């Protein structure tokens, strides 16, 4: 999506001109051949189009359709129009789940990107050292394991006898120890920190890769002009990283809004509904409570929300190279 | 000079700190897995008598052998097909550029941001109507469809940068489009295809939502889906749960460490393109 895709000059010259024959004959032959030859590209695309239409586009349309009905998944369905969608605003459980997803953006997106920027710009000078190479592997580990495993691991870390409380006691903060995921005030931030843990390495490495593409001469010039580290960061690093920051924000915001695995494993949306997110609510509504219509209305809202949030980020950070 | 050196040291310190934060959960998992099963160890502490047999116990009670086989079958069903038809479509959109290729490609791109939860409900009824519920096909077929936006985008980005001359030369030698694709373009695209395959492997292996919704029997799920069931069953036996989690992580970790460089590059590029 973000990749520079330049149209090659050869684009117009699609079909080869037949080598022999007068001009008119050649043109006629070309006109006659072009439709058959040119359209054959769709044969190559056909298998992908078919599975995509069947298992993605059709379900999207069905979700929209379901959202207009009251249906328990078994019996007859009843047309209710926009009632299900209206419920997203009147039913506080549904509305709060959307709010929680936005709160998670702080932990899944804002903190990893800021921390990634801080770390990446500090280690820019040693980006080629052996330590940095080891870091490339280590920081990627959370990206490789299933999120479910991250959830299980952190659930244990957060438990009342887990490492988090142990570490807090070591540094004399025994008074704040608690069962972090069971506490109404700390459950959502605690779940958020799991997301931070998963995503901060990815952001750091993406930003570092972007920094290696910035012309070192720019830094030299900034130094000669007497710019301090902060000034240098603002006027050289940040502008040079526009595209990479856009990628980080896009990827992390989607994983915040569409979070499911971590929360399913660690809190199941509790305590109360403190950590309920749209993804999990859809799952419960559709498959436990059998309220398919409401679940689908929430699903439509979730799909639209992701688009509405992500598209502006794309426009803002895209390089003007089209 | 002194400033530069001080910066380098802050950089190192920061990096080590970040790595430590990344690794601590894994250490905690490993150490806890060695405690006697059924106990509640406190924090990170090395047990007096490491219970290495916890791993074999977890292997047995989680039916790990069966699970590995099941996940492998699902990966074999998803990855080659997705890579193949994704490559074909990428070739069409990036190189053949038939009429309407822009609009067609745009429709695929829109699917990139789709949260799987958005379509899981109709997918359930669709898979049920096909009579595939509780079979591995229930995971394989939808996943192929869901991977298409990324696969097509990834392969198109490769083919768009291929010079036209390559095809011109082959066409003059009398190759038709099909031969052109298989004999010239697929061999040239192998690096892009293998990176794609690595990413698809990872995402299939770790797929959770489709597994828990569409397949009831943990033995027919992906590894991640089975881990969910394992937690439900053994959630109270922390050491055993930790041992089981480690075993379930192990395959991806091993593959990651073997293909490390390619993996990191694929993931970095993958998120840039995606």
What's the main sheet of chain B like? none
Number of strands of chain A: 2
The third-level CATH topology of the domain at 64-226 and 248-273 in chain B is MetI-like fold
The number of E-state strands of chain B comes to 0
User: Can you tell me the CATH superfamily of the domain at 64-226 and 248-273 in chain B?
Assistant: MetI-like
Question: Can you walk me through this structure?
Answer:
The complex is a heterodimer of chains A (322) and B (274). With 322 residues, chain A is mainly alpha-helical. Chain A folds into two domains: 21-79, no CATH class; 90-317, Orthogonal Bundle (MetI-like fold), CATH 1.10.3720. Chain A contains 15 helices and two strands. In chain A, strands 1-2 form a two-stranded antiparallel sheet. Mean pLDDT of chain A is 84; it is low at 1-35. Chain B has a domain at 64-226 and 248-273: MetI-like (MetI-like fold, Orthogonal Bundle). Chain B contains twelve helices and no strands. In chain B, helix 10 runs antiparallel to helix 11 (238-258). The mean pLDDT of chain B is 87. The chains are: A mainly alpha (322), B mainly alpha (274). The interface between A and B is large, with 108 and 107 residues.
């Amino acid at each position: 999506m973000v990749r520079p895709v330049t149209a090659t000059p050869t684009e117009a010259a699609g079909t080869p001109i037949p080598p022999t024959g007068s001009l008119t004959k050649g043109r006629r032959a070309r006109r006659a051949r072009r439709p058959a030859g040119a359209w054959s590209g769709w044969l190559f695309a056909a298998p992908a189009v078919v599975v995509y239409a069947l298992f993605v586009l059709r379900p999207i349309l069905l979700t929209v359709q379901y959202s207009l009905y009251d249906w328990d998944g078994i019996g007859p369905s009843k047309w209710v129009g926009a009632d299900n969608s209206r419920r997203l605003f009147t039913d506080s459980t549904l509305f709060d789940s959307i709010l929680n997803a936005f709160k998670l953006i702080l932990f899944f997106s804002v903190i990893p990107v800021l921390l990634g920027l801080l770390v990446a710009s500090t280690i820019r000078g040693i980006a080629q050292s052996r330590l940095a190479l080891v870091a490339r592997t280590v920081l990627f580990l959370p990206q490789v394991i299933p999120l479910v495993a991250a959830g299980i691991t952190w659930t244990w870390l957060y438990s009342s006898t887990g490492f988090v409380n142990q570490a807090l006691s070591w540094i004399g903060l025994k008074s704040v120890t608690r069962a972090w995921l069971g506490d109404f005030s700390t459950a959502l931030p605690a779940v958020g920190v799991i997301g931070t843990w998963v995503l901060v390495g990815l952001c750091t490495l993406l930003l570092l890769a972007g920094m290696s593409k910035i012309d070192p001469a720019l830094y030299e010039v900034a130094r000669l002009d007497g710019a301090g580290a902060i000034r240098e960061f603002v006027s050289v690093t940040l502008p040079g990283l526009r595209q990479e920051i856009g990628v980080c924000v896009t990827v992390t915001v989607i994983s915040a809004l569409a979070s499911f695995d971590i929360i399913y494993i660690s809190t199941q949306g509790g305590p109360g509904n403190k950590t309920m997110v749209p993804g999990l609510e859809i799952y419960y509504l559709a498959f436990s409570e059998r309220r398919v219509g409401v679940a689908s209305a929430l699903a439509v809202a979730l799909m639209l929300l992701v688009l509405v949030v992500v598209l502006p980020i794309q426009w803002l950070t895209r390089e003007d190279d089209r | 000079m002194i400033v530069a050196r001080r910066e380098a040291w802050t950089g190192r310190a920061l990096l080590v700190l970040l790595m430590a934060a990344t690794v601590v959960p894994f250490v905690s998992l490993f150490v806890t897995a060695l405690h006697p099963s059924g106990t509640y160890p406190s924090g990170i502490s090395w047990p007096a008598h490491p219970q290495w047999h916890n791993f074999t116990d977890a292997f047995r009670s989680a039916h790990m052998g069966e699970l590995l086989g099941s996940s492998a079958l699902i990966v074999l069903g998803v990855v080659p097909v997705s890579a193949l038809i994704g490559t074909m479509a990428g070739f069409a959109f990036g190189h053949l550029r038939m009429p309407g290729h822009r609009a067609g490609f745009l429709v695929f791109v829109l699917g990139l941001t789709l949260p799987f939860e958005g379509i899981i409900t109709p997918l359930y009824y669709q898979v049920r109507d096909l009579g595939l519920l509780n079979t591995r096909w229930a995971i394989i077929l939808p996943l192929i469809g869901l991977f298409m936006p990324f696969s097509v985008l990834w392969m198109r980005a490769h083919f768009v940068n291929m010079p036209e001359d390559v095809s011109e030369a082959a066409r003059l030698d009398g190759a038709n489009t099909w031969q052109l694709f298989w004999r010239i373009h697929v061999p040239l695209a192998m690096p892009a295809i293998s990176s794609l395959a690595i990413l698809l492997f990872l995402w299939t292996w770790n797929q959770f939502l489709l597994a828990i919704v569409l397949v009831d029997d943990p033995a027919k799920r992906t590894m991640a889906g089975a881990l969910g069931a394992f937690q439900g069953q053994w959630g109270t036996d922390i050491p055993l749960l930790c041992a089981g989690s480690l075993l379930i992580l192990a395959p991806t970790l091993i593959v990651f460490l073997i293909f490390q460089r390619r993996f990191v590059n694929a993931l970095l590029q993958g998120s840039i393109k995606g």
